[in-house]
Amino acid sequence: MSAVIEHDHHEDHHHGPDKGLMRWVLTTNHKDIGTLYLWFSFIMFLTGGVFALVIRAELFQPGLQIVEPEFFIQMTTMHGLIMVFGAVMPAFVGLANWLVPMMVGAPDMALPRMNNFSFWILPFAFSMLLATFFMEGGAPNFGWTFYAPLSTEYAPPTVTFFIFGVHLMGASSIMGSINIIVTILNMRAPGLKLMQMPLFVWTWLITAYLLLAVMPVLAGVVTMMLMDIHFATAFFDAGGGGDPVLFQHVFWFFGHPEVYIMILPAFGIVSAIIPTFARKRLFGYASMVYATSAIAFLSFIVWAHHMFTAGIPITGELYFMYATMLIAIPTGVKVFNWVATMWKGSMTFETPMLFSVAFVILFTIGGLSGLMLAIVPADFQYHDTYFVVAHFHYVLVPGAVFSIMAAVYYWLPKWTGNMYNEALGKTHFWLSFVGVNITFFPQHFTGLAGMPRRIPDYALQFADYNMISSCGAFLFGFSQILFLFIILQTIQDDKKATNQVWESAHGLEWTLPSPAPYHSFSTPPKNLQEAHG
Amino acid sequence: MMKLMQLKWLISFALITISSAAFAGWDDINLREGVTQISREVYDLHMLIFIICCLIGVVVFGVMIISMLMHRKSLGHEPADFQDNHQLEILWTVIPIFILVAMAIPATTTLNAMYDAGDAEIDIEVRGYQWKWQYTYIDDDPNPATQVKFMSNLLTPPDEIYNRAAKREHYLLDVDNPLVIPTDTRIRFLITAEDVIHAWWVPDFAVKKDAVPGFIHESWAIAEEPGIYRGQCAELCGKDHGFMPVVVHAVERPEYDAWLADQKQAAQQAWNETGKTWTMDELMTTGEEVYLRACAACHQVNGQGLPPAFPSLVGQGIAVGDIDAHIDIILNGKPGTAMQAFASQLSPSEIAAVTTYERNAWGNNLGDSVQPKDINSMLTGQ
Ligand code: HEC
Ligand SMILES: [Cu+2]
C-alpha cells in the first residue's frame, strides 16, 4: 500500500492537482470532476428546495397569500426541472465519476477531457434556465413535463431559452454516459469480469445505455417544439394537422426511462451499503443484475401509463397496464434481495445504513402506489392528483435522494480521508426521515380525496393535510443545512479514517488509502476477489 | 441508544398513521364511491388493490423489522452465510405473478365496462377554455335560435381567494352555471378544448378525460342519484388551472325536462333581443357584467391588465382605436396568445355590450357603441 502512495508522490509535479481556481476549470481528473458534479448538484438541490418551500408556503393555507398563480406554476415547473436535471442526475454522475474508476481498478475515466466538458456545460445550462426568471414573460410555466400546446403556442417567450438549456443538459448527459460506458467496458483491471463488478457499476452501465437511448428523444421533442414556435411547423398543433398527444408520446418515451435513470444507480448504492452493515454478502448478485436489466428493458415499453386519460383506445390501455404491472416483478426481486441480505446478518445502523434501510422501506411504498397507478380504471381517479405527487416523491426523495445521501456518508471518509460525525449524521437522518414522511404521506390522502396537482389554491376540505405537509417540507428542507454542515466539518476535521473505513466493506475502493490518491490505480490491482462483496 | 432508535422508528410510523385517521374521517380521505355503477366498480377495485398493497407492505416490512430487531451485532448475532437460494427466488417471482393476475382480472373487466360504447340518450359537448368550461347540449335537429350552450365559470369571488372575505362552503368548487343532467339516463360527454389541454373530471362519476384541442374524446355516465357533483380541471392549463371547477347537477328527469325547456326559451329570447336596438345604458350594464365574468381574469377589473402577459385596455391600443379592429379581436381572438376567440363563447348581445363597455369604461370615454344586430350580421356574414 505505501508503495502506491510513494509512487504518486514522486509524480506529483505532473499529476497532482493544480492550485487555485484553474484546478477546477481545467481539471480532467475524475475525482475533481466528481467533486464538481456533487457540489453543483447540492447547490441545485438547495435551489430547487427553495422553490419547493415557496410552493409549500403558499399551500400552507387555502387562499392566495404569498405568490400569484402565475408565479406559482413557474415555481412548480422550475422545482421539477431543477431537481430532475440539476440535482438528482448530476449527483449520480458525480458519484459515478468518483467511484467507477476506483471500483473497476482504473486510474481515471476513459475520456478525461470530455469529462471536463460535460461537467462545465451544466453551470451554463442552468444559469440560462434560471435567468428566465428575470426575463420578460417570466420563467417556464408549463410544468416539468411541458405538454404542448401550453409549452408552444401558449408559452412565454423564454421557452426558447428553456429549449436551449435542455439541449445543453442532454449533450452533457450523453457525453457523461459515453464516458461511463467506455470506462466500464475498456478500463476494468485485467481479469475483472463483468459479472464480478460491484452492482453500482452494473447499474450505472445500464443507466448509461438508457441515457444514450433517450436523451436524443428528448432533444428531438424540444426541437419539434422549437420548430412549432419559430418555424411555423405544426407537429403538436391539430389546426395544422399535428397532434398535441404526439408530444406526450415522444416526451414519455424519454420520460419513463428517465425515471429509471434516476433510480437504477440508487439500487446500486443500496446494494453496496446493505451487505456492508449486515456483514453478509448480497443475497443474489446475479439476480440483481438480471432484475436491473429487466427493469431497464421494460422501461421502454410502458411510457403511455402516464397518459391513460389522454384518449388511448382500450387495447392500448390494456397493453400498457399489463406491461407496467410486469415491472413489479423485477422490482420485487430487488426488494426481496435486500431483505434477504439483511436477514440473519449482524447489523449495525450507521448513517449510511439508516438511509439505505429507509430507502428500501419508503421506495417500496412508492413502488406499491405505483402499482396502484398502473391499474387503469383506478388511475382515471388518481391521475394528476396529489396521489401521483405522493407516489413519485416517495420514489425520488426517500428513494433517489436518500440513496445519494447514503452514498455520501458511506464514501465520504474515502473521499476526504476523515470520518464524519456519526451523531450528527444520525440526527440528519432522523430529521430527514420524519420530515419526508410528514410531507408526502398525507399527500396520498389529499390526492384520493380529489386534490389536483399543480394548483396554487385548494378547496377547504384539503386544508388540514396541506398544513401538515407544509410543516414536514420545512422540517425536511432545513435539515439539509445540517447535511451541508456535516460535510464541511468532515472535510476540515482530522478525525482520520482508516483505509477500510467500514468493518466489512468489500470492493476495490477500500483497498486504496483514505483519502484516495489523486489517480486511483496507476497499476492494476491484483486481488480482484475484493471487487464485489 | 438502540432501544431509543427503535422507539423513534415505531413512533414516527404510528404518529403518521394516527394523524391520518384522526384528522378526518376515513371517507374524507379516501376515494369517493360515487353515484354510478362504474364509479362503484372503480372504488371496489381501488380498495382491492389498496388492501393487497398494504398486505404486501405488512409482510415485507414485517420481515425487515423483525430482522432489524433480532439480527443485530449489538445483540451478538453472528452473520449467517447464505446466498442464491433458487427455491426462494422462484417463489418470490411466482407469487407476485399470481397477485398481479388477481389485480389485472377485475381491472380488465371494469375497463371494458368503461369503454362500452353503447348509445347514449343525451349528448353533451364539453369544451375546455382557459379557464372555464363550456357545455353544449347537442340537439338531434339543431336550431341556432334555441341551442342550449353556456359557459360555466368559477363563482368564488377574488375577495375570498385573497383572504379579504371569509371563505364559504364549496370554496373554489362553485360555478355560475353548472352542467345539468337527468338521473338514470345515459349521457355521453364529448370532450374537447379550445386552447390548451385540460381534463374534465367528475370524481363521483369516475370520469376523467383529457380535453385536447382539435380532438374529441368520449366518455359517459349514468348518475343514479340526484345531487350536485363537484370536480376540477385535472391537467395543467396555465395560470388559473386551479380555478376552473366542474360542477354537475343531476336532477330527476321531469325537472331536467323543465330546465331544458326554460333554457331553450331563454335562448330564443336572447336570439330575439339581438334584433332590437339597445340603449347605451343597457349596453354598459350588460357589458360590465360580461367583462367581469369573461375578461377580468386577464385584463383585470380596472382594465389595466397584467403587462406584459395581458395588456392594459385603458387609454391605449385597440380598445381606444378603430372599433372594427376592436370587435375583430374579441370575436376572433389573437391566435398564439391567451386572447381567445369569443365568437363562440358569448352571444352577439354580449359581444356588443362588452365592446361598448370597454370603449366607455375606466375613462375610455369614446362615446361610440355597437349594436347586437350588427355583430350578428358580421357573424352570419350578411
Ligand atoms: C385568457 C386571458 C384573456 C382573456 C380572458 C381575455 N383576454 Fe383580451 N387579451 C389577452 C391577451 C394576452 C391579449 C394580447 C394579445 C396580443 O398579444 O396582441 C389581449 C388583447 C385584447 C385586446 C387588444 C388589446 C390591445 O390593445 O392590443 C382587447 C380589446 C381584448 N383583449 C379584449 C378582451 C375582451 C373583451 C375580453 C373578454 C370578453 C378579453 N379580452 C378576455 C388575454 C385575454
Ligand atoms: Cu384547465
Describe the structure.
The complex is a heterodimer of chains A (533) and B (382). By secondary structure, chain A is an all-alpha fold. Chain A has 18 helices and no strands. Chain B is of the alpha+beta class and 382 residues long. Chain B has 4 domains: 1-26; 31-114, Helix Hairpins (Orthogonal Bundle), CATH 1.10.287; 122-271, Cupredoxins -  blue copper proteins (Immunoglobulin-like), CATH 2.60.40; 276-380, Orthogonal Bundle (Cytochrome Bc1 Complex, Chain D, domain 2). Chain B is built from 10 helices and 10 strands. In chain B, strand 6 and strand 7 form a beta hairpin. In chain B, helix 2 (37-70) packs antiparallel against helix 3, helix 6 (280-294) crosses helix 9 (348-360) and helix 9 (348-360) packs across helix 10 (372-380). Residues 130, 294-295, 297-299, 310-311, 313, 317-319, 326, 329-330, 334, 337-339, 342, 354, 358 of chain B line the site of heme C. Chain A: Its main location: membrane. Chain A: Residues 24-528 form the Cytochrome oxidase subunit I profile domain. Chain A: Pathway: Energy metabolism; oxidative phosphorylation.
CATH fold name of the largest domain in chain B: Immunoglobulin-like
Tally of structural domains of chain B: 4
Question: What oligomerization state is this entry in?
Answer: heterodimer
Low-confidence stretches of chain A: 1-13
Range of helix content of chain A: 55-70%
CATH class of chain A, named Mainly Alpha
Q: From the helix content, strand content and strand pairing of chain B, which structural class follows?
A: alpha+beta
Structural class of chain A: mainly alpha
What's the order of the H and E elements of chain A? HHHHHHHHHHHHHHHHHH
What is the CATH topology classification name of chain A?
Cytochrome C Oxidase, Chain A
Distance between the termini of chain A: 21 Å
Number of strands of chain A: 0
Can you name the CATH architecture of the largest domain in chain B?
Sandwich
**CATH architecture annotation of chain A:** Up-down Bundle
Radius of gyration of chain A: 23 Å
The percent range for strand residues of chain B is 5-15%
